[in-house]
Request: fold
Amino acid sequence: MPLNFTLFLILAVIAIASALGMLFSKNAVYSALFLILNFAVAAFFYLILDAPFIALTQITVYAGAIMVLFLFVIMLLGAEQTGRMTAARWVRPTAITLAALLVVETIYIMFTQKGTIASLSSIPPDFGAPEVVGQFLFNQYLLPFEVTSILLLAAMIGAIVLTKRKS
Amino acid sequence: MIPVSYYIGLSAILFTIGALGVLIRRNAIIIFMSVELMLNAANLAFVAFARAFGMMEGQIFVFFVMAVAAAEVAVGLALIVTIFHTKQSIDVDQMHSLKG
Reply:
């Protein structure tokens, strides 16, 4: 799918702005809503990158199930006001310096190691389609797929056991 | 076409914002959301590389990352609810009962 640079730039700016909004919101509900916006933009990117199945899974699992769970817990606890940012005074400047260092480092590596990243190659027309994903999941990756179901069952039981009130 | 390195750059920036959130916020729920943001940034890199190399394995891996993230959120939020019932607070600086 061809895409002009302007659209990519707009989506990237929305993604970064919503991530920063999540980080600096005083209200936890606003943080969660900003994160949902971020996940929706990520789903757009997945569509652009020829991954329609992953894009829709992103919407249903992340923006749907996971973030609804977050909002539910925030409202259940009544913990909307997130309070102070950091305990010690030196934490914040140090963290921001280290984060800036990490970004600079990554961008330096990205633009000096150009040869190691392949250019976008031609792909079959059904790349990323649900049928192809299903064939991979139920043939080559059947064991990890089944292990995932056990993991989800364990998480479900764990959540019930943890939140059960001792009477 | 957008070069794949742009997607990797965006993924790196989102990951860094998530890491920054874990470092500077003290609210357990916000820290948890920052972890989700980092997972999502890694997923974006996976999908970008899957597209660049024309291989489906990257997308399959993203699927598994999402499943693990869902399990992690269920258990983590249950822990946060339990901690809130015990301490009446989800400030991570208050959770020092195990500290020697």
Q: What stands out?
A: Chain B has a mean pLDDT of 88.
